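Amino acid chain
________________
===
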Amino acid sequence: MKRKMMAVAAAGVLAVSLAACGEEVKTIGGGDNGSNAPVAATAEAAGAETTPAADADAPAGTTESAPAGYAFEISGVRLFPDMDVTTVPEALGEYTHYEEESCAAQGMAHFYTFADYEINTWPDGDTDRIYYILLKTDNVATAEGVDLSMNKDKIVEVYGDGYQEDGHKLSYEKGGMKLVFILNDDDTIQSIEYDSCALGE
């Protein structure tokens, strides 16, 4: 049985707090042996969408399960807004978890904090769907290779000029989701977010 203990919510509040109402903080330590070792479940066992082996006849960079919008890939798992993430965190290793009554939909919102990124969910009946994914360090990058060590010029080079700009926020919308870059005053990247548009702005 997983060890659970109360913990203070991690420092570094999200650039957008999309589903926060209450506070019940839990820490997930690891496997069923009660240790704090990383969870050893595979992505397939956890029901995650994984990146299949490349098909020689398929166009480069595509897979059969690719979403219409942008996706974040980590440890062979493809994550994107609004996908069913009910069991996915178990496939990604150690994380801190807490849940709150969702302000976006009826039910509980879940917050999964990993070393370099965070996942927040929204409730869709009995299903937990990804509300946003936040990339926090330059140890991780978008599928297109952009990370926090880069700047606005690199973003535009990679994604083009079809963006919306609002202050320090640069947004690309595709497939019912947004890829959002939060910039510092010097146009370097502060954080990267994959945001759902399913519940409106």
Q: What stands out?
A: The radius of gyration is 17 Å. Residues 152-193 form one domain. The CA atoms of residues 119 and 133 lie 5 Å apart.
